[in-house]
């Protein structure tokens, strides 16, 4: 229920802001607005404003629209002709069309800024032992390394305030098929060095558990057993919540990342391998023989003990002042928009996986997860979706605001509007492209939830 409510609230808010942008600029330009609708289909609620605009809430909340007076849609009374959209100057029509995405973009900036102003407790970018064979291990990262900055070229650096910042930068580079450079030091900030993470070698891969394992970045945490699933392999071995793992097969266990990797690799082909564990329990050392169970994950056989591992990571409180927070909102929104456009371009050219596209099921799932995590994570989710909506609507596709802006660009350059015949053909092509994109995104959602990739 939380997921559904969080998703519907996000959808209603972002659609309302988008349509409000169109509405306000249309009114400012002297255009008469006939209807401002959130949703489609049967009208559930209706109110008429002072300016004669009909405000409605409809049954299907998967979009919205602002219907303006327009001679192309039907007869217009002579005394209202000046209020028709099609009679306004080109610059005003373009401003009205662009106002929807612009409103979503401004909302994203303000929400990102609000997250920065409010601040939050987040894991510090201090890393645990990289998984064997991972990009992090090959780059030379070690347990206890503190990553303080990232760079796309090793020249211009951007400060890292937390582990989520680091993971965001790394996954963005992987999606774009580019390397990322890290500035790392020891836990006290000494002996800084630059490292290159070869994320371009994982270009085209869909984001999933296996991908993050191959990247190999995780927070440093003590090798404690948090919980044990009843009836699981760990429970059968006699492991208990609160056990501290000292060694596995005689090899010391420095942290939770090392422990997780050791468990994952405890098999030979299709056969699990029994491990000799030494744990500290209530001040005493206990030897345990632990045999994992093999499960299928992302097309690979992985060993699992069905236990929760790791103490809470070191946390830091990150917040910003009024000006810094607002500037951070501007930077985050711009960086995300540029990355989104570049990723779409790479998907079109085949350089990035189309599995990076997400649909309504994934968005709803993220909405629920962020709402359960707290107010600040939900605000950040809203900011990201609002910006995605702005960028999507600016794509030069008929039926989207970006497509109408392309019509206006043609009109401005040629001195004549796009003919109705061409508009009809382009509308059909645009509808087909959007339907294919929606089908692909929904297919990706189903595949993710079914565990197919």
Structure notes:
- Keywords: Hydrolase, Membrane, Metal-binding, Metalloprotease, Protease, Transmembrane, Transmembrane helix, Zinc.
- By secondary structure, the chain is of the alpha+beta class.
- The protein has 3 domains: 91-119 and 320-453, no CATH class; 120-220, Pdz3 Domain, CATH 2.30.42.10; 225-309, Roll (Pdz3 Domain), CATH 2.30.42.
- The chain contains 12 helices and 18 strands.
- The chain has helices at residues 2-28, 90-118, 135-139, 163-176, 209-215, 233-237, 256-264, 322-349, 360-373, 375-393, 401-414, 420-450; strands at residues 33-48, 54-68, 120-123, 146-151, 157-159, 180-185, 193-197, 225-228, 244-248, 251-252, 267-268, 271-272, 275-281, 284-290, 293-297, 300-304, 307-309, 315-318.
- The chain has a 4-stranded antiparallel beta sheet with strand order 5-4-6-7. A 4-stranded antiparallel beta sheet has the order 10-9-13-14.
- β11 and β12 form a beta hairpin.
- α1 crosses α2.
- It is elongated.
Structural class: alpha+beta
Query: What helical percentage do the residues reach?
Result: 40-55%
Largest sheet strand order: 5-4-6-7
Characterize the overall form: elongated
Low-confidence segments, ≥5 residues, pLDDT <50?
Answer: none
The count of domains is 3
Distance between the termini: 26 Å
Membrane topology: Multi-pass membrane protein
Subcellular location: Membrane
EC number: 3.4.24.-
Keywords: Hydrolase, Membrane, Metal-binding, Metalloprotease, Protease, Transmembrane, Transmembrane helix, Zinc
């Amino acid at each position: 229920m939380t997921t559904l409510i969080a998703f519907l609230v996000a959808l209603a808010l972002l659609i309302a802001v988008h349509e409000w942008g169109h509405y306000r600029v249309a009114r400012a330009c002297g255009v008469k607005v006939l209807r401002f609708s959130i949703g489609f289909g049967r009208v559930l609620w209706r109110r008429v404003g002072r300016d004669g605009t009909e405000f409605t809430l409809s049954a299907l909340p998967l979009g919205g629209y602002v219907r303006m007076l327009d001679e192309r849609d039907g007869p217009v009374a002579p005394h209202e002709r000046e209020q028709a959209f099609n009679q306004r100057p080109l610059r005003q029509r373009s401003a009205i069309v662009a106002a929807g995405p612009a409103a979503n973009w401004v909302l994203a900036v303000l929400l990102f800024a609000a997250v920065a102003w409010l601040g939050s407790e987040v894991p510090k970018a201090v890393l645990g032992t990289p998984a064997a064979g991972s990009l992090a291990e090959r780059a030379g990262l070690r347990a206890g390394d503190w990553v303080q900055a990232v760079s796309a070229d090793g020249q211009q650096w951007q400060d890292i305030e937390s582990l989520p910042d680091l993971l965001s930068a790394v996954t963005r580079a992987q999606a774009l098929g580019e390397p990322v450079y890290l500035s790392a030091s020891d836990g006290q900030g000494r002996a800084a060095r630059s490292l290159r993470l070869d994320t371009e070698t994982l270009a085209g891969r869909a984001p999933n558990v296996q991908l993050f394992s191959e990247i190999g970045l995780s927070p440093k945490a003590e090798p404690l057993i948090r919980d044990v699933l009843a009836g699981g392999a760990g429970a059968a071995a006699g492991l208990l919540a609160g056990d501290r793992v000292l060694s596995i097969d005689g090899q010391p266990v420095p942290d939770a990342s090392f422990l997780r990797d050791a468990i994952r690799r405890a098999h030979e082909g299709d056969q699990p391998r029994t491990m000799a564990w030494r744990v500290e329990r209530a001040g005493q050392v206990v030897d345990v023989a632990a045999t994992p169970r093999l499960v299928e994950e992302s097309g690979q056989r992985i060993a699992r003990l069905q236990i929760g591992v790791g103490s809470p990571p070191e946390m830091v409180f990150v917040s910003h002042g009024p000006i810094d927070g607002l500037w951070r909102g501007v930077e985050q929104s711009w960086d995300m928009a540029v990355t989104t456009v570049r990723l779409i371009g790479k998907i079109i050219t085949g350089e990035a996986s189309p599995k990076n596209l997400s649909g309504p099921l994934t968005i709803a799932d993220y909405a629920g997860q962020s709402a359960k995590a707290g107010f600040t994570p939900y605000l950040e989710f809203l900011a990201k979706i609002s910006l995605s909506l702005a960028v999507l609507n600016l794509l030069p596709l008929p039926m989207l605001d970006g497509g109408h802006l392309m019509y206006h660009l043609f009109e401005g350059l040629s001195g004549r509007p796009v003919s109705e015949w061409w508009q009809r053909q382009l509308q059909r092509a645009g509808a087909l492209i959007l339907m294919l994109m929606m089908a692909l995104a929904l297919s990706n959602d189903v595949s993710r939830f079914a565990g197919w990739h």
